[in-house]
Amino acid sequence: MAPKKDAAKKDDPVQEQMRIKFRAKCQFRALGRLVLENRYWLIEGVDEYEGLDDVKRRVEQAVRGKHKKKQLLNINDKALLNKFVEERTPQEQQYLYRILGGLKCFKRYPNQVKKKLAAVTYFKYYGPNRVIVRQHHEAHATYFIVTGDVTVSQVVYDDLLQRHVSVDVGTMAAGDMFGEVSLLHNIPRTATVTTNGHCELLALMKEDFKNVLQESLQKQWDEVRRAMSAFTYFDSLDEVARREGCIVAKMKSYARNETVLGDGIGVPNFVYFVLSGRCQMIESLQVIVTKHLGRSHYTLYDPYIPEEESEKDLEEKWFAAYKNRRRSTFEDKSEMDAATSQYRSSKGILRSSSLLKTGSENKREQSVTLMDVAPSMSTCETSAQDFLHPSEHRKSVRLSQAIPVDSQEDTKNTGQLQSADLRTHFMQVCIFNPGSTFGFGENMRDRRIVALTPVDCMLLPKVWLLQRNTANIWTRIQHYLEKKIPTKRKLFKEMVSACRWQDYRDQVVSDVVARSKAVNFTTVHDVPYSIRMEEMFDI
Question: Are residues 331 and 380 in the same domain?
Answer without folding.
Answer: yes
